[in-house]
Amino acid sequence: MNIAKKAVFLSLVLASATFATKYEAESATLTGGSGIVNSAGVSGTGYVDMKEGNIAFENVTAESAGKYQLTIHYKAGEFKSNYIKVNGSTAATVDFNATTGWGDVSIVVTLKAGANNIAIEKFWGWISVDYIDVSPYQSVAFNLSAKPVTPNATESAVKLYSFLVENFGKKTISGIMTGDMSNYTKGADFKTHDDVKDIYTRSGKFPALVGLDFLFATGPKASESWYTEYTEKGISLAKDLWNKGGIPAFSWHWKDPLDEKDAFYIKSAAGSNEYTDFDFKTAFKSGTTEWNTESAAYKGIIADIDHIAEYFLELQKAGVAAIFRPLHEAGGLWFWWSINSGKEFAALYRLVFDRMVKEKGVRNLIWVYNPESKVVSDWDPGEEYYDVISIDIYNNDNDYSSNSGAFEKFKTATGAKKIIALTENGPIPDVKNMHDDEAVWSWWMPWYSTWSGKWPGQTANSVWKSNMADARVITIEDMPGWDKYKPSGSEQTTRMAEKLHFSERAVTTGIFDMKGQYMGLSEQGLPQGRYMIRKKVEGRTMFMPYKKK
CA 430, 436, 437: angle at the middle one, nearest 5? Predict the structure, then answer.
């Protein structure tokens, strides 16, 4: 390292050290039973046992508004999870792994200039906290693939993937999950479904993405008329939705592949409902993740995968593409596909992909890996197996936080190479919060209102209206129509400006390449090429084309 580089490196180290600030837990505001433990051998005069209470660090100072790394120095006898709230809004649900002594966990939070309040609030509680440390954080650019992971994807799938990439970071696709199909008529307009109509009633607009479920497509009762009709209605709705320019998104609550129980929950999560004891480990050769193709478990798994593949092939024949989120909420201890190790889960996910794509010829899907936060890296099936990484987050009523902590964690875990989505939620993340926090989810999808669902009602109608009317949220009314849509690169029609023409009051909030990938906040250091610069001008967000020579 030459002298000049050493000087620059040293200045960066000193700058980082200057802005890193420690806040002692024993000086925080304690409520709900949390208490100070005076102790030697820790930072300051002691630490705080959280127990069933909360710890609020007041007057956490930031020199300027932006992203910061929050490090919590803690210890825990066993795994716990708690909320982090910044200035009253939920930033993240943080997992605290068991420690043998003191350890650290870090997340990224967004702070305003000046004083901030950072609180650790009870979800499980029962951790000890010595201090928190706050230091600057620099966002990195996304580097998304130009193509979906499916080899020789259909034209429709390429269009859908390109649409997701082009809008990621700039706009969020509105969605809603469907539940009851009783009042929906096969072949009818998707807008007549009760859950879709509910969003229109609340907001005055229809969502662009609609969630569907193969909930009744497999299992011991799958061949019964009511069950088959439910699935056929979902396929019919998907076709109409696509033809009207929308996006079908499928989940699969996969019931016992041996058809012994009409259930997907394991015993500890089922409550009074039926549960399954199915263990997919029995489909492996003992002590390995190599499939035992002669085992009953393997044959049951394959039969179900092939059955679902036929529905996707029906859509493929009709020119319809869809999003598919198999084995969802991976690592959550409630579904049978999450009871074993991450290595075994990854093998199962790859089997679903390989069987559908390479054996059955399903080429019209955008694939989603949907883990719980605590297993995001350890259970990853491999970046060649999914296009989107997603998380399910259910905030409390009227909590419209961006959940930026989870967004940044998933971004880091995937090396900023994947689209990030919120595939289940209660309240929607407010569009302003998402853009202020640079946590712009590709789409969000509240769970249904039918079957006595409460989730769309967790968002006030005024918030529904303001978000669905915002230019940064995509509704079905905003969709171009798949017959008209052309991915960027196939035909570039944007006329590029040579210089920026914003007023001095404009603030840059993001620079994106022509694939929609976030490149940072400054034109300095950008390679030559064409970009879109996002600016905030007098409360409005605007995009300006820019050509770097």
Answer: 90
